[in-house]
Description:
Low-confidence stretches: 19-24
Number of strands: 2
Structural class: mainly alpha
Order of helices and strands: HHHHEEHHH
Largest sheet: 2 strands, antiparallel
Amino acid sequence: MSDDHTLSDIHSAAQAITVAAPAEQNHDFLARLLEAALLAAGDALTLERMGQLFDEADMPPAAELLAALELLKARCSGRGMELVEVASGWRLQVREEYAPWINRLWEEKPQKYSRAMLETLALIAYRQPITRGDIEEVR
Length: 139
């Protein structure tokens, strides 16, 4: 499932719920919507990209999006994840103190180099500068 498809599904849900959502629940709804979008996207989202969840007429101003993000950030306190602003936008991430356990989910497999590759690297390291012809001559 692509990110665009997922975000368009959230956009459709946002349209349906926005019509029915009372004004006083707007920040709460917006915070939950942005949480869902951030989880679905998998990458950081800019405010501009978050704005694409809405039709032009229904798009909240940037100040409202930021207020909803601050509400979401406060809701994440005391949980295993946090909302952070990075260079590429906003993202939900696992808190650093849980990294030693979470990293176990991703096994790091050592690179497997062929014997020929290792021989070539050894020649390059030992005889710099070296040309391809020099390498072929040693082999």
